[in-house]
Amino acid sequence: MPRLFFGLEIPESIKTSLLKVKTDIKGARWQSKTQLHLTLAFLGEVEAEQVIQARDNARKVTHTPFKLEAAGLGCFGKEESPKILWAGVSPEAELRGLQRTLAQRLINDGFTLQNPSFKPHITLSRFRAGAGSVAGLIEHYQRTRFGSWPVQGFALFESSPGQSGSVYTVLERYPLTT
Q: Cα–Cα distance between 128 and 28 in angstroms, integer?
């Protein structure tokens, strides 16, 4: 069964800026350039016919294009023992609107989202138990702006296991239109 999620692709220049954060922290598993994205709706493993259903729902989403900026760092978990280190994005209002529209379509069509509470972020690193602190890193990058980009669409990704972590393949892109 394919493992799917909807998300935003991030421009190469911003990915390059984000990867400069990478440093030696105990237990960190840093994302590669090809893994950086912003998840809108995580579906998890779905049946083949649900892939068609998900695509049909996404094609019906209407939303005006908007601009996002990646800036600052934060983490899920405590800074002293993080689970995930992420870069923030702003402004969140338009992004949350797009996510709500997409999520509502999917839920109304019987999908159960694996990320029901949406916290806009770009995952930079995942951490094993007993990881080192990211407090200094978050403080150092708290005012850093990694770049902005026009969001003109979103994509359906398939996530497959790979030797260096998950491999994300774009199955279809959906342009934003009003």
A: 7
Catalytic residue among 89, 121, 155, 159: 121
Catalytic, 63? Answer: no
Quote the CA–CA distance of 3 and 159 in Å, as a whole number: 5
At 99, which helix (H) or strand (E)? helix 92-108
Active site residue 37: yes
Q: Of 33, 42, 41, which is closest to residue 15 (Cα–Cα)?
A: 33
Range of the domain at 111: 3-175
Task: Name the helix (H) or strand (E) containing 45.
Answer: strand 38-45
Residue found by looking up tokens 């800074």 in the block? 79
Amino acid at 48: A
Query: What CATH number should be reported for the domain holding residue 16?
Result: 3.90.1140.10
Encode pLDDT of 53-107 as tens digits. 999 999 999 999 999 999 999 999 999 999 999 999 999 999 999 999 999 999 9
User: Exactly one of 15, 37, 63, 105 is catalytic; which is it?
Assistant: 37
- Distance of alpha carbon 175 from alpha carbon 178, whole angstroms: 10
Could you give the number of structural domains in the chain?
Answer: 1
DSSP code, position 117: S
Q: What is the pTM of this model?
A: 0.94
**Three-state secondary-structure class, residue 110:** coil
Any idea what DSSP says for residue 155? Answer: E
